[in-house]
Amino acid sequence: MSERTAISLWSPRSLATLAAVASLIGILLYLSGTLDFHKVKPGSVPAPAWVIEGTVSKVEQRPVVETVSWPGAVSSRLVGHVAAKVIARVEDVGVQLGDPVERGQVLVRLDDREIRARADQARAALAAAEAEAQHAHIELRRIRALFEREAATKQERDAAEARARAAEAARGRARQALAEAESVLADTQVLAPFSGVVAARFVDPGDLATPGRPLVIVHDPSALRFEAHVAEGAGARLRVADKLTIRIHNPPLQLDGQIEEIAPRAEPSTRTILIKLSLPQEAKLLPGAYGTLEVPVGTRIATLVPAGAVVRRGQLEMVYVRENSRAVLRLVRTGKQYGDWLEVLSGLEPGTEVYLPLRRNGEQHEG
């Protein structure tokens, strides 16, 4: 071998190639188990003490109510979309999100300069109309006195009576105009329709308020209910006063709700029916909290195991099965939970004896 050939074999590129090949061989040996020095030798592994000390139960087959979950949310019974009755600029917003408000409290103040000017004009017009009516009545009394002394004609008396009636009518119109102007002026102060909490605020000073556009939303957080849209097939079997299970996601909570209202028609676009249910008074929830409504659709036979027998390790679900007075760990796959029981989709047969782990300090051992 020449000197040039030896140098070529030990060049950096050749060394890198040899290292890559050696690494690949090592990986293959490890995957095959040849280099795994921590393998557990075949044989039985004794069950933990908390399994042996636990009780034994059996896998059972029972009829269960099949349900379908429909999304919904907690809402307030009283929700006020407070809007202005007049077109005006917003001068001041006196509340923030979450502020408690009392019935009749001023929420938003509108610019009232133009409306106040109209009210002043109506007030002046009423003063003029009252003066004219007073003068007309004085003139009428004078003409009547002259007519009684035959110093005025019947035509003059009738004309004076007509002028008095016209002046009285003008005074009435002026009073109505002033009342209307003062009512519009009062509408520049937007008031809370009931006691509650500010749930939304849509305007700031300087914005233009128009009739029909909500300025503030107020709701009563003490009067809550749950609303959900269910398929029309499922909703058709429900009746007012039926009790259904409601699962709130945050915080995790299960409640029993009673149906209060059922929409008489389905939504054409979604083919669903709106269901409204009352919530227990002690439920501490916020309007808008997401949850699901469990609607029964029938019954079926399910294989059930006590929920306390299932041990979870990561994504795996396992059960200690009793075989020949020994505890054997078996992988299972579970489904829905029915009270204290879990449905077993695979891994166990009815009648199989399973260990219920010993509870210490009120908590289940999780393996």
Folded structure, characterized:
Helix content is 29%, strand content 39%. It has six helices and 22 strands. β18 and β19 form a beta hairpin. The longest helix has 36 residues, at 113-148. The radius of gyration is 42 Å and the shape is elongated. The two termini are 64 Å apart. The relative contact order is 0.18.
Structural category is: alpha+beta
Q: Helices and strands, in N-to-C order? A: HHHEEEEEEHHEEEEEHEEEEEEEEEEE
Strand count, sense and barrel status of the largest sheet are: 6 strands, antiparallel, barrel
Count of alpha/pi helices: 6
Whole-number average pLDDT?
A: 84
Q: Please give the radius of gyration in angstroms.
A: 42 Å
Strands, helices and their partners?
Elements: H1 3-9, H2 12-32, H3 49-52, E1 55-58, E2 60-76, E3 79-83, E4 88-93, E5 100-101, E6 106-110, H4 113-148, H5 154-186, E7 189-191, E8 196-201, E9 208-209, E10 214-219, E11 224-231, H6 232-235, E12 243-248, E13 253-262, E14 272-278, E15 290-306, E16 310-313, E17 316-323, E18 326-338, E19 341-346, E20 353-356, E21 359-360, E22 363-364
Antiparallel strand pairs: 1-20, 2-11, 2-15, 3-10, 4-6, 4-9, 5-8, 6-7, 8-10, 11-14, 12-13, 12-15, 13-14, 15-19, 16-17, 17-18, 18-19, 21-22
